[in-house]
Prior knowledge:
This is UvrABC system protein A UvrA protein Excinuclease ABC subunit A. InterPro entries: Aminotrans_V_dom (IPR000192), PyrdxlP-dep_Trfase_major (IPR015421), PyrdxlP-dep_Trfase_small (IPR015422). Keywords: Pyridoxal phosphate. It comes from Candidatus Micropelagius thuwalensis. The protein is about 45% helix and about 5% strand. The protein is mainly α. The model has no long low-confidence stretch (mean pLDDT about 80).
Amino acid sequence: MKVVHFDSAKVREGIPTLEQEVNVHQLTRLDNVAESKNPNQVFNEVNPFYQKSNSNIHQSSQELGREASDMYKD
Protein backbone atom coordinates (compact mmCIF):
# COMPACT_ATOMS: atom_id res chain seq x y z
CA MET A 1 0.00 0.00 0.00
CA LYS A 2 1.31 3.43 -0.93
CA VAL A 3 1.38 6.01 1.88
CA VAL A 4 0.52 9.55 0.82
CA HIS A 5 1.63 12.51 2.93
CA PHE A 6 -1.13 15.06 3.51
CA ASP A 7 0.17 18.56 4.24
CA SER A 8 -2.68 20.18 6.16
CA ALA A 9 -0.76 23.44 6.57
CA LYS A 10 -0.50 23.80 2.81
CA VAL A 11 -4.24 23.17 2.42
CA ARG A 12 -5.02 25.77 5.10
CA GLU A 13 -2.94 28.38 3.26
CA GLY A 14 -5.23 28.25 0.26
CA ILE A 15 -8.60 28.20 2.06
CA PRO A 16 -9.32 31.44 3.95
CA THR A 17 -12.13 29.92 6.04
CA LEU A 18 -9.70 27.46 7.61
CA GLU A 19 -7.45 30.27 8.85
CA GLN A 20 -9.89 31.21 11.60
CA GLU A 21 -10.25 29.82 15.10
CA VAL A 22 -13.49 28.59 16.66
CA ASN A 23 -13.63 28.10 20.44
CA VAL A 24 -9.85 28.56 20.65
CA HIS A 25 -9.20 25.78 18.09
CA GLN A 26 -8.29 25.92 14.44
CA LEU A 27 -11.28 25.26 12.24
CA THR A 28 -10.94 21.80 10.72
CA ARG A 29 -14.46 20.82 9.72
CA LEU A 30 -14.65 19.75 6.10
CA ASP A 31 -18.25 18.62 5.78
CA ASN A 32 -18.77 18.74 2.03
CA VAL A 33 -22.44 17.78 2.29
CA ALA A 34 -23.30 20.73 4.53
CA GLU A 35 -21.01 23.28 2.91
CA SER A 36 -17.88 23.48 0.87
CA LYS A 37 -14.85 25.56 1.81
CA ASN A 38 -13.51 27.44 -1.19
CA PRO A 39 -9.84 27.88 -2.01
CA ASN A 40 -8.52 31.27 -3.08
CA GLN A 41 -8.49 30.18 -6.74
CA VAL A 42 -12.30 30.00 -6.67
CA PHE A 43 -12.58 33.54 -5.31
CA ASN A 44 -10.07 34.78 -7.87
CA GLU A 45 -12.23 33.44 -10.71
CA VAL A 46 -15.67 34.31 -9.30
CA ASN A 47 -15.01 37.84 -8.00
CA PRO A 48 -14.46 39.44 -11.44
CA PHE A 49 -17.83 38.08 -12.55
CA TYR A 50 -19.64 39.69 -9.62
CA GLN A 51 -17.65 42.91 -9.95
CA LYS A 52 -18.11 43.43 -13.70
CA SER A 53 -20.57 41.10 -15.42
CA ASN A 54 -23.15 40.08 -12.84
CA SER A 55 -26.31 39.44 -14.84
CA ASN A 56 -28.74 36.65 -15.71
CA ILE A 57 -27.34 34.18 -18.18
CA HIS A 58 -29.08 33.01 -21.38
CA GLN A 59 -31.93 35.49 -20.82
CA SER A 60 -30.66 38.84 -21.88
CA SER A 61 -30.00 40.71 -25.07
CA GLN A 62 -27.99 43.37 -23.24
CA GLU A 63 -24.19 43.37 -23.16
CA LEU A 64 -23.80 42.33 -19.51
CA GLY A 65 -26.10 39.37 -20.07
CA ARG A 66 -24.07 38.26 -23.07
CA GLU A 67 -20.83 38.60 -21.10
CA ALA A 68 -22.29 36.60 -18.22
CA SER A 69 -23.46 33.87 -20.60
CA ASP A 70 -20.02 33.69 -22.22
CA MET A 71 -18.30 33.47 -18.83
CA TYR A 72 -20.71 30.74 -17.76
CA LYS A 73 -19.95 28.71 -20.88
CA ASP A 74 -16.20 28.96 -20.28
